[in-house]
Amino acid sequence: MEKLARKQVQQLTPYLSARRIGGSGDVWLNANESPFDNAYVADISRLNRYSECQPKPLIDAYAAYAGVKPEQTLTSRGADEGIELLIRAYCEPGQDAVLYCPPTYGMYAISAETFGVERKTVPLNSDWQLDLAGIEAQLDNVKLVFVCSPNNPTGNLVKREDIVTLLEMTKDKAIVVMDEAYIDFCPEASTVDLLKEYDNLAILRTMSKAFALAGLRCGFTLANPDIINVLLKVIAPYPVPIPVADIAQQALSAQGLERAASQVAELNQNRQYLSQALSTIEGVTVCEGWGNYLLVLFPDGDALFKAAWDNGMILRNSPIENGVRISIGNKTECEKVIGFIKNFYL
Asked: Which PANTHER family match (predicted)?
């Protein structure tokens, strides 16, 4: 049956998510998940009925949280579906292209390849910032430019002035898609205010990270109504299950927002603690990070990753030479990581 699949799909290498890679152990710091397992009570009395395509209470709640209008907000099955919707809605297979700047999140490439859309890459500079001249030279036929900030896996923020330059550069040519999956850990760096000035801006958000709802699969696209209305043409009829909307609304309540803010503050403190402790180990470089993870450069990253794996400490190797990405866990998990790595280099 494989030969009946489209040629692009036959040749496709799937995204190796943390769950696909697997592993076994008692410290899981490989998927940028939250360590907080918050309790919810969902109303499951209406499951004989279809959900709304865009549940108004959920849209209103997230729009208020993000500081935008409801008509600028679309919810989907995680931010990953937002990536697919944008590509399906704006890119003609075999004609148009998307552009992204590695090292960065792998699903921009996978989604484009799945739909037969050309992929153009302009690598980040040595300081992991945008190569604006390189991007400008590659914009022919590009409909979407994906920028991740904080960037996964490097953890750095993209300079705001470069984002503005990119928006100006792509006016009436392409949509700049800002992936803000980790922005809740540094909300002051969001580009949401730029929606007032730029019609060619779309922002991806998720409740997987700061809201500790990775298993819920609830994401959002923020954009001006013209873009939102185009996406509504291609989204599935019932993308948000009733229990998902119910739980997401609880997380966005006053009590839920207070809890999320407290947990974000704790994770940011743990990130600082982990960074400072690992920075004292000779030969180890901790990259500045703004999300719920750190990229750490080791003398031999593969050896460290394998040793941790073999000892039940599941981290994430990265495409960056000798780089290992470590999610920020609770204080106990951070202490275990620090202790293991220190012992490894004794």
From this structure: HISTIDINOL-PHOSPHATE AMINOTRANSFERASE, HISTIDINOL-PHOSPHATE AMINOTRANSFERASE-RELATED
Is residue 41 assigned to a domain?
Answer: no
Q: Given pLDDT bands bounded at 50, 70 and 90, which one contains residue 24?
A: low
For 99-133, how does the pLDDT look when each residue is reduced to its tens digit (9 = 90+)? 999 999 999 999 999 999 999 999 999 999 999 99
The last residue of a domain, from among 205, 232, 255:
255
- Based on the domain organization, do 236 and 125 belong to the same domain? yes
The residue range of the domain holding 307 is 2-35+256-344
Say whether pLDDT at 18 is over 70. no
Residue 197 has pLDDT above 70, yes or no: yes
Structure tokens, 326: 């470590």
From 255, 289, 309, give the residue that closes a domain. 255
> Which CATH number covers residue 17?
3.90.1150.10
pLDDT over 80 (residue 181): yes
pLDDT one-digit tens code per residue, 201-226? 999 999 999 999 999 999 999 999 99
